[in-house]
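Course assignment 3, question 2. Fill in each field.
Student: A.L.
Task: Predict the tertiary structure for the chain below.
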Amino acid sequence: MYQFDRLYKCNSGSGMIMILAIVPIILIGFLGLSTLILQTVRTQQQSNLKVSLTMVRQGLIVNLSNDIAWTKTKQFIASDGNLTTAANFDCFYLNQDCFNKEGDIGVLLDAANNIVLDSRNGVGGINERGEVCQTYANLGSRKSCPFRYTIHWKAQCSASCTNPKIDIRATVTVSDSSEHNVAIDLEPYLVFYSRDF
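Answer field:
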């Protein structure tokens, strides 16, 4: 009986040491697993944002290159009363000198006359499905309207010219990438396009 008690006391002491050694190992394992899961979620979020930006960029290129969509965009700008853009386009409409003419294109329409981009005000953006949204600047809605493209045009003139081609540049911003827990290089999502007016 004496030996059994002594053996039991030795085992219970070593059992406590084993528990003290195993618990930190288990905690380190859980910490590693949670870090792995968090990294996987961030990678998935970044991948989703990149796919969304790629789709939006492709949609802009399609509509900028489509002659029907471009005509509808010009008509909308001329009738919208957006004086800055319309006045800059006057060199084309009135067959005047377009040297040093440039400006922003606040609205882009598709061939079906739907607005696909509206950056005339500070709240116009694009959601992750590529749809126009009006809550880009609202702090509580940034996840539902995270992208904003602005389109700028410039006449291709090195001197006095009439009816030149135009260079179009679309730049994108993400409302708050820290809210999405990702950092994205936006350079691949810029749009450069040249076309006849």
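Instructor remarks: The chain has one domain: 3-196. The two ends are 103 Å apart (CA to CA).
Grade: pending
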